[in-house]
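AAA domain-containing protein: structure tokens wanted.
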Amino acid sequence: MNTAASRTPRRPWLRWALVAGIACWVAAIAWFLGSLLFAPWLNPWLRWETQRDGHSLMLLQQSRSELALIRQEAEDRWRAQGQWPATIALPGTTLPGPQLLHIEVPQPLALAVRYGNRFSEASGLRGTRLELRFDPDTQIWACTTGIPAPSSRFVPADCRTATQWSALEWLLALLAIAAVAVAGTAAALFFANPRIRGLRAKPRRLRREPIAELPQLDRQFGWMRCRQSMLAAAAIDPADWRQALGFAQAGSAVRAQMLAARVAAETSTSQHWPLPGMVCQWRLPLTLPVALERVLLYLPDADIEPSLLVRLLRELPSGQDVILVVSPGAAFDNALNGFANDPANLCVCIDQAGLSEWLLHPSPTQVLVSLLGRQLQVTRISPYQTRGGITRPTAFFGRESLLARVLNREPGNYLLVGGRQLGKTSLMKAIERRFAGHPHVQCHYLSLRDHRFSARLAAELGLPADTAIDALVEELSRRSDGRRLLLLIDETDLFLRAEAAGGYAQLSALRSLSEEGRCHFMLAGFWDLYEAATLDYASPIRNFGEAINLGGLERDACIALAVEPLAQLGIHFNDPALPGLLAEACGHRANLVAIACQQMLEQLERGQRLLDGLQLDRAMRSDAMLDALAGWARLSPDPNACLVDRIIVYRIAQTSRHRPGPGTKAQPMTLAGTLADFAGAGIGVDAETVRRSFARLQLAYVLRREGEGYDFAVPLFISQFQACEVAALLAREMQTLRQANPLPL
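Answer:
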């Protein structure tokens, strides 16, 4: 049900009629007050008052006639006699008694007029004065008020201003004053409004204003002609602002689409929900920095009671999907936020302020991630992938130099060699993503589950399992539209082991295809790939391509991996040195850093946003960390080689500088020392076997060279061993190796 359509439609003309009525009322008041102060002869009330005093009005008309006669008499005598008269009176007046006007000649070419006692006191004219001056050149009289001056409503028209305004000019002037008054009042209300004043002081708060109140703010910004400056100060795109203004009046489907478009989510309607309103299913993009592939969006009807809505949400069957609930109005915010803050459910409330931020923020993805981080258990949306190859671009850090070696050159062959969980798969998937849509290179990723390379590739292409390699590559070429082929082949050890036993038939075919320029390859693996590429002289992939030995991640990338995903959730380390300590303790292994961060997230209490050193120490000693460090004891299919590997590791555990406690500094472990130990123990192991064992342990990132000797590549590696157990383990392994490989007599 869409209640937006059932609401009473708004009538914009009523609002504009109200605004016009208020403006006319303000203009009328301004006209009345302005004319009262500055043009009283135009003021309707004063004109009415004047009309009521009929006696004074009659005397005023008579005095104006007499004044005209007196000015004419003075002009005539000046023209006839050539000089200004010393005294002057109204011609033909001989009756004694009170006079309307008393005339004086203060100086030549001037007259002083005083209104007489025939005017009443209430009229405001008795005893007031006018001063007249005659210009002999222009033959024009100039009139000014004297002291005391008569009331402005009775001042003769030629005494008001030197250049008399018409009634229309006065009307326009007063209307202009009214407009200024209205604008000034609006400005005063605008700047005096604490809400507007707060937005001007902190413009970015505009992003968090409730969505339903944005149209009112927009009108106020429009009246003040400050919309553009306010949006610029708040870093809001005008197009986003216009879209947000129409959000509240849009239908549910349109609102769902608007919200989904902001985070690049694919939306579709979800049916058969026992909820009043609309439910949509979103498929989130891989660029989202959280481990969340899809969510549900619920837009409730606005005519439901908040308490009933919460009850319906609480009665939903428990599931694994996160539900984003869009608040229908401000009355729902508190109830929905309270429900969403309960860790027992997977609901997230987008309240009225959150909707505005979603639609107006320059990075809406950050808004979504922050919202999820505040209202859900962070372990539910953890951005850390601790198993398998990294598939999300936002979870891949570092390796920029290795990527540049592959991406910024002409296609070639590469051998990516390294131990498990060092990031080979993640790097290959990153290469595949970078080549996606490339105009000249078509890149395919293939992971081998066993030794059957051709069958696996044929299955990917939908061809019969016995299809020849040449035909498979031909089909890839056909599908690439003329682009050069780069085939990324992961987990090649079993394939290479089978090839070595069968005479390298398929590898020879791959080399031929590469030499013909039909396809290039990147092979990823561990010891079997290393042996085939470097130790087996007869192998077809010897000198087949550039070898890339994958080790630890760059230090800065490790720190970024520990800091940036947590920051997206609003979580930070309380000591800026802790991420660096974590990177060093993990030996710059990305998977160990991710595991430690995941373990720290699981220790967080509800609402906690700071990680401390104690939580870091617990994470580095967790079972998950110990499990990730294990697996080194069987690096080769040869049991004897694995036995030598374990003896070397136990021996280094006794000499490592990473051992806990003060202790005495032991001599570093060396290849020569190991051979001497074997000889002294009566063990007949040849030097090549020991050399390969050291190479294998380095390739697996268990050991690394330090000066003349070796130590653990990952300082945390030492945490697997108890000091009291290492000697016993070493003695037992030495005994087993001596029994299998005694010194010849």
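The longest helix spans residues 54-81. Residues 36 and 45 are 8 Å apart (CA to CA).

Cheers.
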